[in-house]
Write a structure and sequence with these properties.
about 250 residues, 8 strands
């Protein structure tokens, strides 16, 4: 089992939500973590909370190719977690603008593209892991969130494309997509989505979230992500579904 102690990790979007859950899990395992985010207040809170625990913060835009190129070259992480994501506008397709509809493509997909490209071009050291945040919406769709579902499916394909390149070039870098298969009500994005779908169905927020079964809080997401990083039984997989009640399952079929 891989321990992660003293390993270097970069987490985009690590100052809140699922990204923060992974940061917490990495810190517990004594990894050195660099967190990239845009919100100076959240980053400052992270520094206060984890001061002296091996956490460094970087204020910046995860879609900036210059930032990802320079940070990868400086840090040389063995773990790269691409969890930066924008919150989509919640409305049916006929009420969306193109700018709102395409926002997740221009943020989540664009960010992952640049980091994946630079991880291969640098390249990261053999045995390194790149985790790419996707969503169960990539399977079932998400009719109130514009281009969100399609963008998250594209991230699956990007993980597979990068895996193919890693094998062709004998880089020995793992690229793996993580897809929570339920709405996580403990994150700003998840709560906004849950409220919209609860209204659409005419049920309470609590009833809607309960329909998924056991919750998947950010910290549990982080624990599942760490398991994928450290347990050899997940080494050969590329796309994993995560749930609160059933844990981790392969979606490679």
């Amino acid at each position: 089992m891989r321990s992660l102690e003293n390993e270097r990790a970069i987490v985009t979007g690590g100052s809140s939500g699922l990204g923060l859950g992974l940061v917490e899990a990495l810190v517990e395992r004594k990894a050195r973590v660099w967190v990239i985010g845009r919100d100076a207040g959240r980053l400052a809170e992270l520094e206060r909370r984890f001061g002296g625990s091996g956490v460094s913060v970087v204020k910046g835009d995860a879609t900036d190719p210059m930032l990802c190129r320079s940070l990868l070259a400086d840090v040389r992480p063995s773990v790269l977690a691409l969890l930066a994501g924008t919150t989509p506008e919640m409305a049916p397709i006929h009420e969306q603008s193109w700018e709102a509809f395409s926002a997740v493509w221009n943020n989540d997909v664009k960010s992952a593209f640049h980091w994946i490209k630079e991880a291969i071009s640098l390249p990261l050291a053999p045995g390194s892991s790149v985790l790419i945040g996707s969503s169960g919406a990539a399977i079932g769709g998400s009719p109130l969130s514009g281009g969100y579902a399609g963008a998250k499916r594209m991230l699956w394909w990007m993980a597979r494309y990068a895996t193919g390149v890693s094998k062709e070039l004998d880089l020995k870098i793992r690229f793996q997509a993580l897809a929570p298969q339920q709405i996580v009500g403990d994150t700003p994005l998840g709560r906004r989505a849950a409220e919209a779908y609860a209204r659409q169905r005419g049920v309470t927020l609590e009833a809607f979230l309960a329909s998924f079964g056991k919750p998947l809080p950010p910290r549990l997401f982080g624990e599942h992500a760490v398991a994928i990083l450290t347990d050899p039984k997940y080494d050969s997989g590329t796309v994993f579904g995560l749930k609160g009640d059933t844990g981790i399952q392969s979606l490679d079929g």
